[in-house]
Amino acid sequence: MSQQYKLSVAERTQTGRSSSRRLRKANRVPAILYGKHTKPESLSIEGPEFTRLLKSVRGRAVLIELQREGKSETALSFVQELQRDPITDKYLHVDLQEVKGDEKFEIRVPIRLVGESFGVKNQSGVLEIATQVLRIRVLPKDLPEAIDIDVSELKVGETIKVGSMKAVPGVDFLDPQGQPVISCVEPVAEIAQATAGTPTAGAAAGAAAAAAAAPAAAPAEGAAAKPAAAPAKK
User: Fold this and answer.
1) In angstroms, how far is the first alpha carbon of the chain from the final one?
2) Exposure string for 111-135, b = 16+ CB within 10 A, e = fewer
3) DSSP 8-class letter at 210
4) Which pLDDT tens digit goes with each residue over 93-123?
5) What single string gives the DSSP state of each residue in 172-207?
6) CA distance to 114, 140, 159, 184, 186, per residue, from 123 (Å)
7) If we measure between CA atoms, which residue out of 41, 84, 93 comes closest to residue 66?
8) Which residues contact 46 (CB under 8 A, 6 or more apart)?
9) 218: which of 85, 119, 131, 203 lies 20 to 30 Å off by Cα?
10) Helix, strand or coil, per DSSP, at residue 16
11) CA 219 from chain center: how many Å?
């Protein structure tokens, strides 16, 4: 199971743009908590505390225990969506999804590569990641912080797909079985060199058309012009 974190939150009695702007000026982040069995709950989070938590998480899939100010009850959740200001990069809003300890829930989990690919080590290959995160269904106690994928045996020209990944106890993969996750491919430079000396059919046709349309070469300076053929005698 991934590490669990704690976060202090406060209830919001007022909502709307004006209220959210006032919260941000006070260095707090507006948030909302959604639950499968409860109504949405408007909250606010202290900005610096939330920033420190995200730096500690570093993109991993984790659960957050929300501690409401003035209340003993807590809620288990994860960050569903973040909104940030494109100019200041400050957090504008946070969507939190509540989960129950005895119920499976859906979440996106990042992949983590393990080992050194055979194709990279021995065939000058390059790893190409097609899927950065995977959708899974899992109980809170079984949530992995990342899905480890062993690439040690991956050779040039081979691809690991969702359906060929190693099973993870308690985890159901929800993405299509044929969806590519990671491939080992030839370096782009080698592919370019292999095709550089072979003109495509389009290029060959264009060259032929250009040659046909080009005017005949003029005789060299000082050379006598060839006389026109005399008419045949009857």
Assistant:
1) 107
2) bebeeebbbbeeeebbeeeebeebe
3) H
4) 999 999 999 999 999 999 999 999 999 999 9
5) EE-S-TT-EEEEEE--HHHHHHHHHTS--HHHHHHH
6) 18, 41, 15, 10, 8
7) 41
8) 8, 27, 28, 29
9) 203
10) coil
11) 64
> pTM for the complete prediction?
0.75
And the tokens for 52?
Answer: 């420190």
In our burial notation (b when 16+ CB lie closer than 10 A, e otherwise), range 80-97 reads eeeeeeeeeeebeebebb
- The DSSP secondary structure of 83-150, one letter per residue, reads EE-TTT--EEEEEEEEE-TTS-EEEEEEEEEES--HHHHHS--EEEES-SEEEEEE-GGG--SSEEEE
User: Which residue is it, tokens 């008419």?
Assistant: 231
Sign, CA torsion 149/102/96/173: positive
Sign of the dihedral defined by the CA atoms of residues 211, 215, 216, 220, in that order: negative
Q: Are 121 and 155 in contact (CB under 8 A)?
A: no
SS3 41: strand
> pLDDT of 181-198, one tens digit each?
999 999 876 555 555 555
Q: In the block, which residue shows the tokens 């691809």?
A: 159
